[in-house]
Design brief:
With about 240 residues, chain A is α/β, with parallel strands linked by helices. Helices cover about 35% and strands about 30% of the residues of chain A. In chain A, the strands form three sheets. Chain A has a six-stranded mixed sheet, with helices on both faces. Chain A is globular, with a radius of gyration of 18 Å. Chain B is built from three helices and eleven strands; from the N terminus they run βββββββββββααα. Chain B has about 190 residues and is α/β, with parallel strands linked by helices. The chains are: A alpha/beta (about 240), B alpha/beta (about 190). Chains A and B meet through helix 2, strand 7 and helix 3 of A and helix 1 and helix 2 of B.
Chain lengths: ~240, ~190
């Protein structure tokens, strides 16, 4: 098993948001987590990546058999975890090139590899930028500063493609995207599909799931997974909403 | 006074004549307490002064700046940018005054002082002041005291950048506008020592 979440409870401030999540993800699987606003979807992504301010009060998370909650955010990244942020953060003064070079080399170092040569890194970066149809001049732009909503999401998928994660979590990456941008996101996720890699797609919108076929669909409501099924759930949600669960 | 930044001594009085340009750069690195007092008089029409300062302090160091920018003639232009970081139980006092004399019409004077405090015990007091006696002027000053941005740090860490490296990157980007050319590596080492 790649990820085993057992009875996960988490609070933000004094408020309990996750109230006992059980979720198991095997290698090669894509899981969609759907649910209404406020269900705890983003909190799940935040807890998985170790965001400060989110406190786990009960339960366990094993990642490749290791205690994920004992790992620092950067250690989780080195182990192959990646979150595509719903609201990507701006980093004034740091270029995308500097940012991603530091990220790629830190991961390599942690995994016992040598730093990448600058020329090799730039070539790889160029290739991944072309893949998500990001203009080359973005390499020199400050991270997310002055980017449109769509450009920020594209930048997330670019980072995902470059870091080549084992478990990708896409937190509402599809929200606010037009169909063309949505296809780019979907291509990014589909390109990572392999028997070794998995993804969690968090969304309240079915459109992305037309392009990325999930193996399982979970409905998250009021901090719990209330039902799990296959693709037929997407159609049920599309026609009758979340109230039926 | 020629072009190019000049690393200024701690105490100085400068008179800038008509059409001349003064550029001063101040650098205070960890390991010393400093009192910096500088007065610039823009004496002739069209004189310019551009001041930049960078300071990094830790432990119980004390760094005091007292800067007076005196616009005495018309059409003069001054800019000031001072960015610094205080860690440990260091104390920074920044006292910056812009004076615009009654005859100094068409003055343009700008001053900014930005600070990051790394600990709860570090202290920064910043006091920008404007004394304007002319009416046709463009003047502004701004001062901020903040902390490293937690969201930015988490974003970087979530991509695998170790916390210490993420902090360094953020501090260097904050300092970038005031780092003198050719001293990037020295400043980076100093930032890592904070």
């Amino acid at each position: 098993m790649l990820l085993e979440i057992h009875n996960l409870h988490a609070t933000v401030g004094d408020k309990e948001i996750l109230k006992g999540i059980d979720l198991t993800i095997d290698k090669g699987e894509i899981h969609a987590v759907m649910g209404p606003n406020g269900a705890g979807k983003s909190t799940l992504g935040a807890v998985l990546t170790g965001r400060p301010g989110y406190e786990v009060t009960e339960g366990t998370i094993l990642y490749n058999g290791k205690d994920l909650l004992a790992m620092a955010p950067e250690e989780r990244a080195w182990a192959g975890l990646f979150l595509s942020f719903q609201y990507p953060i701006e980093i004034p003064g740091v270029t995308i090139t500097a940012f991603m070079k530091a990220a790629v080399n830190a991961k390599r170092k942690a995994n016992g590899l040598e730093e990448m040569k600058t020329s090799d890194f730039l070539r790889l970066m160029k290739e991944k930028m072309a893949f998500v149809q990001m203009k080359p001049e973005f390499a020199k732009r400050e991270v997310n500063v002055g980017f449109s909503g769509g450009e920020k999401k594209r930048n997330e998928i670019f980072q995902m493609a470059l870091l080549d994660p084992t478990l990708s979590i896409l937190d509402e990456t599809d929200s606010g995207l037009d169909v063309d941008a949505l296809k780019i996101v979907a291509d990014g996720v589909n390109a990572l599909r392999s028997p070794e890699k998995s993804a969690i797609i968090v969304t309240h919108y079915h459109k992305l799931l037309e392009y990325v076929q999930p193996d399982y669909v979970h409905v998250l409501k009021a901090g719990r997974i209330v039902t799990t099924g296959g693709r037929e759930l997407i159609d049920a949600i599309e026609s009758k909403g979340f109230d039926q669960f | 006074m020629g072009h190019g930044h000049y690393i200024a001594p701690a105490k100085g009085q400068y008179q800038v004549a008509a059409g001349q340009v003064l550029e001063l750069q101040f650098v205070v690195l960890p390991g010393e307490s400093r009192d910096i007092e500088v007065t610039v008089d823009l004496c002739g029409p069209g004189a310019e002064a551009h001041l930049k300062g960078l300071y990094l302090c830790k432990a119980d160091e004390k760094v005091n700046f007292r800067v007076v920018m005196h616009h005495k003639a018309s059409g003069c232009h001054s800019t000031q940018l001072f960015n610094g970081i205080a860690g440990g139980s260091a104390e920074v006092n920044f006292d910056g005054t812009i004076v615009v004399a009654p005859d100094a019409q068409k003055t343009e004077a700008f001053q900014e002082n930005h600070n990051i405090v790394l600990t709860e015990t570090a202290k920064v007091n910043t006091k920008p002041q404007l004394e304007i006696y002319a009416d046709d002027v463009k003047c502004s000053h701004g001062a901020t005291v903040g902390q490293l941005n937690e969201d930015e740090l988490f974003y970087m860490r979530s991509r695998g950048i170790p916390e210490a490296e993420a902090r360094t990157l953020q501090m260097l980007s904050f300092l970038a506008p005031v780092i003198p050319e050719g001293r990037e590596e020295e400043i980076e080492r100093a930032v890592r020592s904070l």
